[in-house]
Amino acid sequence: PPNFSLNKEKPPLGDFLLRFLWSSRHPRERYTLAPMAVPDRIMYHTKDGWEIQLERFPNTKGRGEPLIISTGPVIHPRILTLDKAVALQSLRAQGFDVYLFSHRGHSLSKPLSEVNQLRFDHIIQQDIPAAIDAVKRVSKSKRVFWLGHGLGGLMLYAWLSYGGGRDIAGAITIDSPAFFAPGSRRKLLKLLSHLLPENRSLPTSPIALLGSQMNPTLSSALSPRLNRSILRYGCEDISTDLFKQMMQWLESGRFFSYHQGHNYLTGLKGSQTPIMFMSGLSDEINAYLRPMRGYFQNSSLHVGKWDVFPLLEEQAASLTEKMHLWAKPYRDKCWTE
Fold it and tell me: Taking the model in full, what pTM does it have?
């Protein structure tokens, strides 16, 4: 596939107008920070007819153990390419061949048939195995590492519950508990679930673009320009099916498939996949993360002091160093049977 940069893509007219308006109101302040160039893109195809691209950032040192990074549901991992891209560059220098995960419904995906299934279960059962197979073919590895933030960690747990541990050399999740307090607004959640249409997308990306014209504070630990940059470059539309399934989890306090036929946590019991849980300042996330360790035979927990986006904050380099040291004993598993 051709190499090209996000920086060089022609921006939509609406985005041009928004940036023009920003410049007229704030002539001395840059609107956003441009993302770094994308060295390579890898195409993968799902069995049910989706064509999706992974953004690849090859290692600058070492053997190139493949690392797939997933975030979500609205924020794309390309936010790691913003500013100085400290975390991304550190991971590459530590020998990881980095792939930013995109799934169905993202701007880097398109359906090749009229079937347009956009649920969490379809991402787990179709997109993840197809993406992992593509990464293994490109890297010639036997297994991959997975780094999941938020929903990206829940995707890992769900994939492992279906036996996906055979593909994973080691995993790291950041602020990704799979336990939830049952929602206090159950009637509202049920109403929203019934009102939203099937197989559609919520316009979160254009809303984020409009929000970037303000002075958003997604994270108080980040500069205003970086907050705006996340909204400008990192936001994706979210499917109504995915949103409805997440509301089911919050309403019930349980992590299960769309029709409640599969409890993801039950399938995790006794998992032998090495995993490091990482958690920030949220007491609630910490409380719900600790029981997760009981599902894994080889797990550890690191509690840090970040706000929302630890791989963009000041401790990004030290966090990736912790990841590097933790992953060191498992890196050979990427190459051996």
Answer: 0.91
Cis status of the peptide bond prior to 73, with omega within 30 of 0: yes
Contacts of 261 (CB under 8 A, 6+ apart): none
- Residue pair 94/57 in contact by the 8 Å Cβ criterion: no
Q: Tokens 């940036």 — which residue?
A: 19
Asked if 53 and 104 touch (Cβ cutoff 8 Å), the reply is no
pLDDT tens for the chain, 337 residues long, are 333 333 334 456 666 777 777 667 666 667 788 899 999 999 999 999 999 999 999 999 999 999 999 998 899 999 999 999 999 999 999 999 999 999 998 999 999 887 778 899 999 999 999 999 999 999 999 999 999 999 999 999 999 999 999 999 999 999 999 987 776 566 666 677 677 788 788 889 988 988 888 778 889 899 989 999 999 999 999 999 898 888 888 888 889 998 777 899 999 999 999 999 999 988 888 888 889 999 999 999 999 989 899 999 999 999 999 999 999 999 999 999 8
- Token readout for 103 is 């799934």
Contact assessment for residue 128 and residue 161, using Cβ atoms and an 8 Å cutoff: no
Residue 239, SS3? strand
